[in-house]
Amino acid sequence: MSRAVVLGGGLAGMLAAAALARAVDEVTVVERDQLPTEPQPRKGLPQGHHSHILMRGGVEALDQLLPGVTDRLYAAGAKRRGLPSGALARGPEGWMERLDTDAYLLLCSRELLDHVVREQVLRDPRIGVREGTRVTGLVGDADRVTGVRVEQGGAERTLDADLVVDATGRATSAPKWLVDLGLPQVREDVVDAGIVYVSRWFTAPPGTRDDFPGVMIQMQAGTGRPGQGAGLLPMENGRWILSLFGSRGGEPPTDEEGFAQFARERHHPIIADLIAQARPAGPIRAYRSIPDQRRRFEKLPVPEGFLVIGDAAQALNPVHGTGMSVAAQCALALRTELDVRGLRPGFSRNVQAAIAKINQGAWQIAVNTDQGLPHVRANVPLRGGAFANKMAARVARTGCGNRMVINTVFNVASLCAPMTRMMTPAFLWAVLRGPRTPALTAEQAIAQFPEFGDLVKVDAAPRSTASPA
Q1: Rounded Cα–Cα distance for residues 49 and 272 (Å)
Q2: Res. 134: pLDDT tops 70
C-alpha cells in the first residue's frame, strides 16, 4: 500500500494532496491548526485578511486538478474580471484603455477559496487530515526520506510515507530538517524592497452593480522614489477589499485618517471617494516582512521521497499576485510527473526541477519590478539598471493603448506565456515605436466604465478604444 504525507493544509498542501491521490493509495495531510468548516479566517494564515487573486494560469491549473471547482467558486460569489477590460487600471506609466485581452482574474476572499478547494479535495476518501499536529522532523537519511515525526496532544509518533511533500509556507523548517539528515544548507535568494500591505474590508454601498469593476493602481519603479499603489477589488457577499501597498520609505499608514489619505493620493481620488460611500467591515490590518524569497532545493541532491512546494519553495511579495497561481501550476506539475513516471527513482528530483522552472518565471517578473525600487536589499546580483528601467517604462507606456503589447504583457504576468513572448520582433518593434495615441486622462479612463454607476461622477466622455493591433 503506497502512502504520501503532505505537510500543511493550506491551498498548496490541499492541491498537492489532490495531485497525489490519483497515484497513491493513501494521502495524509498534517496541519498544525484546526481547519474551519466554513469560509472563515485561519490563525496560521495572516495574509488571509488581505486581497487575493488567481491569475488565468492559476485558474486553468486549478480546474485541471479539481474539475468544476471554479464553477463552484463563481456560484459562491467569486468574480471574474478581464485584464484590463474588467477593472479600471493605472499602470506604472499611465491609465490604460479598456482593451480586451486573453488575461483575466478570479477574485474572492482567501477563506472562500480555501474552503471550496478543501471541501472538494477532502471528498476523496483516499485523503485524510491530521489537525492540531506539529511536524518535528523528517525520518530517513540523505538518500531517502521514509516519513515524518509528528507531535499531537503531547504524544510523538512517526508517519511512514513513500513520499513527503512540504507545503508549510514561508516559515518552513525543511532547510534544517535536510541539514539534520546530512545534506548541505539550501541556497536562499532574497530580494527585499520592504513592501508593506495595509488592507481593510468594506460593505459595498447600496446600489453597487454586480459587475462593479474595481480599481487597480500599480507601483512605479525606477524613479528613485518609493513605489506605492492600491487595489480596490469586488469580493463575494457584497463586499470590497482595499489593499494599499508601498515599498521601503513609502509604507501606507494604519490609522483611519492616514489610510484614507494614502488612498486619495494615488493619482486620482476615486478610491477614497468610493470607500467614503462604503461601510467598514473590519479593522485596518498590516502585513509586513514579505520579501521575494526562493529556496533553491533543486540545487541540492534532493533525497528520494521528499519534495518542497508552494511558499516553502518560493514566496513573492503579494503585490505581484502570483503566489496561489504558481502553487496550482506546481501541483499540476506534480500530478503530471506522477502520471508519466510514478514513484520511481529520480521522481523527487524531476518534480523539484519542474517546480523550480515554474517558479523562475514568476520570480523574474517580481524581481524585474522590485529591483527598481529604492533601498532594495538583495543577496543576489540585480541585473536592472537605468536601461532596464527605461525599457520597462516604455513597455508600460506603450501598453496603455496598444492591444498587442498589453495582451502580451498580461499573458506573461498571468502565467499563461513565457517571458520570451516579450522578445518577439513584433513586440519589440511596437515598443520601439512607442505609444501611437495620446495618453488617457484619469477622467477619460474612468468614463470607460459605466459599471461604476452612480458611485462615480465624471465629466469626460469615453474615448474610443481603437488602437494599433
Answers
A1: 20
A2: yes
